[in-house]
Amino acid sequence: MKTNTRRLIYVAALLVALVAGFGLARLTSSQDAGASHAAHSDDDGHGSHGDDQTQESHADHGAEGGHDEKDSHDDHGDEATESEEGLVALTQQQIEASGIQVVAVGRGGGSETRLSGRVEPAIGARAAVAASIGGRVERVIVAPGTRVRVGQPLAVIVSGEAATMRANADAARAEAEAARLVYQRDQALVTQGVVAKQELEASRARSLSAEAAARAAAAQVVAAGSPNAGGRVTITSSVPGVVGAVQVTPGGFVAAGDIVANVADPAQTELVFSAPPALAAQVEPGARIEVTGTNGSFSAIVIGSAADVREQGGMAIIRARPESGPLPPAGTPVSGVVVAAAKDDTLTVPADAVQTVEGRSVVFVADNGKGFRATPVLAGRRAGGRIEILNGLSGDERVAGTNAFLLKAELAKGEAEHGH
C-alpha cells in the first residue's frame, strides 16, 4: 500500500515538473518574439542592419537578373546588326545637315585624253593684211600695238603698175561713154530713115562691148586697192583689232601678196588643241574639255574638229570656246582633258561616289528612307569627273555623291563599335 502511494506521488511530481517546463519554454519563446519585434521597430538598432542585408540580397539578385536580361538584349542587338550589315542609318534631316548629295546613276562613259594647245584669235577676228599690188612703200601709218578700225589705213604704196591700171580704167570708161552716145545718135537717125537698121545694131554691139571693158577695168582698179591717178595705193585693215606685227618699212619694196601687217581682235579668241586624227573623229561639237591655263582651270565646249592641213605629221586640231569668262591672251599655252568614245549603255556615277571599304570599291545606295547601304561595285574608267560602273548596279538606283566619304567614316565607326 505504501509502495503504491509512493509511486503515485512520484508520478504526480513528474507531471508537475513537465507542466512547469512547458510553461517556461512557452514564456521564453514569447519574450524572444517580443525582443525581435522591438529590434525591427528600432531604426537605429540591429534590425536596420538586417534590412540592409536583406535589401542587398534582393539587389544582388535583381542585378543578376538584370544582367541576364541585358545580355539577352545585346544578343538580339547583335543579331539585328548582323542582319543590317553595311547599312548606315540616317534620317533625311541628318542627310541634309551633312551635305550628302543624292544623285541618280547616269549613263555614258568614255576615256580621258590629255591634249596640249594654245589660245589663238578666233576665225574672222584676225587678218594678215597683204599688198594688193607691187610697189614702193611710201609711208607706214601704224605700229605694233596700234588699235585700228575696219578700213583704217596701215601703209601707203606707190606703184607704176597701179597708175597704168587706173589710166586704163579711165580710158575704158571714156570709150564706153562714146560708144553709148553713138548708139543713141543712130537710134534717132534710124527713125528719120538716114541710117539703116544694120548700122544701128552694130553701134549697139560696140556700146555694149565698151561698157563691159569699162567694168572690167574698174574691177581691176578696185582689186589693186583703188589707186589714185598717181598710182598711190592705201593698204587698209579688213578687221577691227590691234596691230600685232608690221612687215614693211618706208622705202622698201613689196610684191603683190606680201604681208604688210597682222591685225587681230584680242577680245575674240578661242582654244586650239593638237590631237591625233582618230581622236578628232570621235570628239564631236558640244563635247566638254577641262582646260588648265595660267589663270587656273575652267570648262570649254568643242566647236569643231578637223585635220590640220598645216601639220605634216597627220595631226588634227580641236577648236573650243570657254563656257564663261574671258580667255588668257592669244599665244598662251594651255592643256586640256577631253572625254572621247562615250557609250550610252555604260553606267556612270560621280567620282566622289565610289569609296574603298576593306579593299573593295563600293557606292552607298539610298535604302528607302533607312539611310544608305554600302554596295560593292566593279569600277571602270574615270572620265570627266565620273567613273564607269561595270557591275553591281542596275541603273535605277540613287546613290550618295558629294560627301560620300562621310558615310564611309560612319560605316567604319559602326563596325569598330560592334567589334568592341
UniProtKB/TrEMBL annotation:
Segments for region (Disordered): 35-82
The answer to whether keyword ATP-binding applies is no
Residues annotated as domain CzcB-like C-terminal circularly permuted SH3-like? 347-408
The transmembrane residues are none
Has UniProt tagged this entry with the keyword Magnesium?
no
Q: Where is the composition biased (Basic and acidic residues)?
A: 39-79
Q: Supply the PANTHER family for this chain.
A: CATION EFFLUX SYSTEM PROTEIN CUSB (PTHR30097), SLR6042 PROTEIN (PTHR30097:SF4)
Query: NCBIfam families given for it?
Result: RND_mfp
Name of the featured protein: Efflux RND transporter periplasmic adaptor subunit
